[in-house]
Amino acid sequence: MIEVRSLVFDYPGKRALKEVSFSLRQGSITALVGPNGAGKTTLLRCLAALEEPVSGTILLDGRDILADPRATHRQIGYLSDFFGLYEELTAQQCLDYAALSHGVDPETQPDWILSCARQLEIDGKLNQKAGSLSRGQRQRLAIAQAIIHRPRLLLLDEPASGLDPESRHSLSLLFRRLQEAGMTLLVSSHILSELEEYCTDMLVLQEGRIIDNTPLVAREEQALFELRVAEALPDLENALLQLAGVEIVRVNQGSALISCSSDPARQHELLREMIAGGLRVCAFGQSKQNMQDVYLRTVQGDRQKGVR
Fold first, then answer.
1. Which of 2, 126, 201, 210 gives 20 to 30 Å between its CA and that of 186?
2. pLDDT tens digit sequence for 158-184
3. Contact by Cβ (8 Å): 179, 102
4. Three-state secondary structure along the chain?
5. Pairing mode, if any, of strands 29-33 and 184-188?
């Protein structure tokens, strides 16, 4: 759905994004993670066609978003970290304004606003001024503004910042409902345990570079499996590539994370094939990716590469 190719962005005296390339699949919820200053907000603003990069291409369904930014805004919703609301307007008026600015048909606008408010559980607050709402309610109103035009891609920068645990959990449920409705989400956050509740993929940004783009759950009809062998095997990757229906997610000389069929019969055959092929398998089991472990392993691996 989204494909980014060799994206470069500069601030005066600093290169914020360095040849960034990745893709987002339709219907995924991708966690954008990395330390402060890694370039996450800059990347989101480029994807939202709010910043123009020095070079590179951002494609939405094969179309360059920078060729027609206004058309892009009809397809994309964006919530910034420091979002603003018109404090003296009611929630209803805020949503009316957002709908009109995104070109929502005036005839369908009332139904869309009510549906959106119900989805965000703020339909009982429509007559209250935005400035009188609680932090969680303001956050929901801001998200409602971002999705009022029913975008296909939703970009969220620290959406749970400042929320209490109950509100964060409620937000997680909302993001899963949006995904089920066909929306693709890219969410930036420092709270990895929270992202783990709903994210399907993880994009790791470090010093303006993408150092990993990892699936956290398997694709449809696929399952993720951890494989360990009894001793280091320099050609483990080549051995796994010979197996039909296996996709390598991560591999080193002693272990691998692979994606294969979720059919137990095929998994049994796959294990037999690995052993028959000479792999000294000592562990083979379904994996539930822990985001914190994956992130730390990725960052440590990148640092080791830098040392070498």
1. 126
2. 988 777 788 888 888 889 999 998 999
3. no
4. CEEEEEEEEEECCEEEEEEEEEEECCCCEEEEECCCCCCHHHHHHHHCCCCCCCEEEEEECCEEHHHCHHHHHCCEEEECCCCCCCCCCEHHHHHHHHHHHCCCCCCCHHHHHHHHHHHCCCHHHCCCEHHHCCHHHHHHHHHHHHHCCCCCEEEEECCCCCCCHHHHHHHHHHHHHHHHCCCEEEEECCCHHHHCCCCCEEEEEECCEEEEEEECCCCCCEEEEEEEECCCCCCHHHHHHCCCCCEEEEECCCEEEEEEECCHHHHHHHHHHHHHCCCCEEEEEECCCCHHHHHHHHHHHHHHHHHC
5. parallel
Q: For strand 63-64 and strand 55-60, is the pairing parallel, antiparallel, or unpaired?
A: antiparallel
**Contact, 157 vs 186, CB < 8 A?**
no
Which of 102, 110, 50, 107 minimizes the C-alpha distance to 80?
A: 50
Q: Which amino acid is residue 176, in one-letter code?
A: R
Closest-CA residue to 141 (of 162, 161, 122): 122
Mean pLDDT of the chain: 88
C-alpha 155/C-alpha 165 separation (Å) is: 22
How far from the centroid of its chain's Cα atoms is residue 121's Cα? 23
Q: Provide the residue type at 194 as one letter.
A: E
Angle CA(10)–CA(58)–CA(141) in degrees, nearest 5? 90
* CA-closest candidate to residue 138, choices 185, 77, 82, 184: 82
Q: Which residues contact 31 (CB under 8 A, 6 or more apart)?
A: 187, 188, 189, 192, 195, 199, 201, 202, 203, 216, 291
Place of tokens 């330390």: 35
The model's pTM: 0.76
Structure tokens at 41: 């907000």
| CB crowding 60-99: b at 16 or more within 10 Å, else e | beeeebbeeeeebbebbbbbbeebebeeeebbbebbbebb
Letter for the amino acid at 190? H
